[in-house]
């Protein structure tokens, strides 16, 4: 008599609920137990697919044909992949139940023949709600031109226009009236006029979010009188709009009349983001005179007067003064988050105005500028950050666009000035320390009531650090549970080729590390290769019935790729390598020679290395 449980009688929803609490690796283990378990846990493995590079896509595509697994795929993200026309046209039949598709690649010889317009290979995607295309508009154009287009089912559409195809914008606007249910629209690399903006809202009456990236807005008027007339332009307010983002635009310097239009059109928005184009390679613009500056300040203040539901505002590389904060206070608007930074020392004054206003924000994004490489200026800005809000819990500090690489930011001073921070992201920054770890340890021993920061999440991007940083965090930040490191380098003695994340008392929810490099002997040397070895030790491994769990992972089979920049700010994308596989060594104590990352903590729920979930 068999004691095996009759799994076949259980609905698949039960196994989906179980898989919801498992990591990616645990799902893979369950799938490999037996044939029955493979059938039950395969849907959870294929529910959300993120493919990077041609090699991964080929493996994924081959797995779809012999089995029925493509029907389980709900969300598919294809990044940096050149598809053939056959692969692209058969994908809807292999994955007919897609809800979201993100395609950041190109289709080879994918020109649609006119005689095949009646036959739409994308018809099976009747469930498609979210579509993102960031290279060619292959899928979008087919949906727009097909008579039986499922475009009306889309709620989220994000596309990047091709400069080599001048007709792409005209074709897009000609078929946009089909997308009547669209609530989120993102347009990249496009030039728009006032009439075209108005046509978007007429075609999509339920639109809630509009994002324009790398875009150009045509001037509405040529003289100051004509520009001011826009303030009284009787346009129909878009009452459904809740978010407007104008990112990396090049026109708010001169065509500030668009600020008046935004104020009249988007009176009900809750999120507003205005980011002017910036690059250290771009020659400085001729500074406007006093009267022109006052015109811009007045236009920004009008936004604060009319948009009374604002919760989040971002003004990056936009000249502004205290008038905007005074307008918010006058209207009784209370912001939750704000982003500031105009690439000058004027940003310090803006933070002081923010602290003097009645705005008590919880989230701050700050863009740094070149003079922050001076230690006194950096310490001044950190002190000002601590005074700008009493409840600041999240801070994003970026020096990426300043032209200064690895400018040191004393993270100990930052946490001292902002003890309530729970989330901190440093971008293009060297995470430095003013005091030694011995000082922090002595202060903790001699003063039991020593105030500890509430830091829970730390993100380091495009920067550098020393190993002393993690020793300090182990002492000062006991609540740190999420650590993310991407495109960073270890600095210090070149003989020290080990990154030591030595935090034995910490209980981590997630550690994510990608593109971490060892120190180099020469300052101007070629960027060294990524660290491939990861030595992981967990001191509390109850699942293994032992007090110690030790594994050694190695990233393998690297391939070259080029990052696609989200924003076009005259920075050349960097060609680098990325792994396509990883291996787990049978004997972790027998480590190969080479630089490695050593991770030691109490417990760890999820570990992501090189974009692979190994735990």
From TrEMBL:
Stored Gene3D superfamilies: Ribonuclease Inhibitor (3.80.10.10)
Highest taxon listed in the record's lineage: Eukaryota
The protein's name: F-box domain-containing protein
Provenance organism: Parasitella parasitica
Gene encoding the protein: PARPA_05792.1 scaffold 19890
């Amino acid at each position: 008599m068999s004691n095996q449980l009759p799994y076949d009688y259980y609905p698949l929803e039960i196994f989906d609920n179980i898989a919801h609490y498992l990591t990616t690796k645990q799902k893979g283990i369950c799938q490999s137990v037996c044939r029955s378990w493979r059938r039950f846990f395969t849907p959870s493995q294929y529910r959300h697919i993120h493919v990077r590079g041609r090699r991964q896509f080929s493996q994924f595509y081959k797995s779809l044909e012999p089995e029925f697994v493509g029907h389980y795929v709900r969300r598919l993200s294809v990044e940096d992949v050149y598809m053939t026309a056959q692969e692209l046209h058969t994908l809807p039949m292999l994955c007919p139940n897609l809800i979201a598709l993100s395609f950041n690649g190109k289709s080879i010889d994918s020109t649609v023949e006119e005689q095949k317009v009646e036959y739409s290979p994308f018809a099976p995607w009747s469930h498609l709600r979210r579509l993102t295309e960031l290279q060619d508009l292959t899928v979008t154009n087919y949906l727009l031109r097909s008579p039986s287009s499922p475009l009306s089912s889309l709620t989220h559409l994000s596309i990047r226009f091709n400069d080599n195809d001048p007709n792409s914008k005209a074709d897009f606007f000609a078929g946009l009236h089909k997308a009547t249910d669209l609530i989120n629209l993102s347009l990249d690399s496009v030039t728009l006029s006032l009439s075209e903006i108005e046509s978007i809202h007429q075609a999509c009456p339920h639109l809630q979010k509009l994002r324009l990236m790398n875009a150009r807005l045509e001037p509405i008027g040529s003289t100051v009188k004509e520009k001011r007339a826009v303030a009284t332009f009787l346009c129909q307010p878009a009452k459904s709009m809740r978010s407007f983002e104008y990112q990396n635009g090049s026109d708010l310097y001169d065509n500030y009349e668009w600020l008046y239009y935004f104020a009249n059109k988007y009176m009900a928005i809750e999120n507003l983001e205005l980011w002017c184009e910036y690059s250290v390679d771009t020659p400085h613009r001729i500074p406007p005179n006093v009267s022109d500056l006052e015109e811009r300040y007045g236009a920004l203040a009008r936004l604060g007067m009319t948009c009374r539901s604002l919760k989040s505002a971002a003004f990056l590389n936009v000249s502004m003064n205290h008038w905007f904060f005074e307008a918010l206070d006058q209207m009784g608007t209370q912001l939750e988050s704000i982003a500031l930074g105009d690439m000058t020392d004027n940003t310090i004054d803006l933070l002081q105005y923010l602290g003097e206003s009645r705005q008590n924000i919880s989230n701050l994004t700050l863009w740094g500028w070149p003079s922050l490489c001076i230690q006194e200026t950096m310490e001044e800005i950190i002190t000002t950050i601590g005074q700008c809000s009493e409840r600041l819990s999240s801070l994003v500090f970026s020096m990426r666009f300043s032209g200064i690489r690895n400018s040191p930011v004393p993270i100990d001073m930052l946490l001292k000035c902002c003890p309530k921070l729970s989330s901190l992201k440093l971008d293009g920054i060297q995470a430095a320390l003013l005091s030694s770890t011995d000082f922090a340890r002595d202060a903790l021993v001699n003063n039991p009531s020593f105030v500890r920061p509430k830091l829970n999440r730390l993100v380091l991007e495009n920067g550098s650090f020393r190993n002393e940083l993690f020793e300090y965090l182990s002492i000062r930040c006991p609540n740190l549970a999420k650590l993310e490191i991407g495109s960073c380098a270890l600095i210090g003695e070149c003989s020290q080729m080990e990154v030591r994340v030595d935090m034995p008392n910490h209980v981590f929810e997630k550690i994510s590390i990608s593109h971490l490099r060892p120190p180099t002997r020469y300052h101007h040397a070629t960027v060294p290769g990524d660290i491939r070895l990861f030595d992981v030790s967990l001191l509390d491994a109850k699942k293994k019935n032992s007090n110690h769990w030790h594994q050694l992972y190695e990233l393998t089979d690297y391939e070259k790729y080029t990052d696609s920049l989200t924003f076009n700010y005259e920075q050349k994308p960097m060609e680098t390598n990325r792994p396509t596989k990883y291996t787990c060594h049978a004997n972790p104590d027998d480590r190969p020679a080479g630089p490695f990352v050593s991770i030691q903590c109490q417990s760890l729920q999820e570990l992501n290395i090189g974009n692979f979930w190994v735990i």
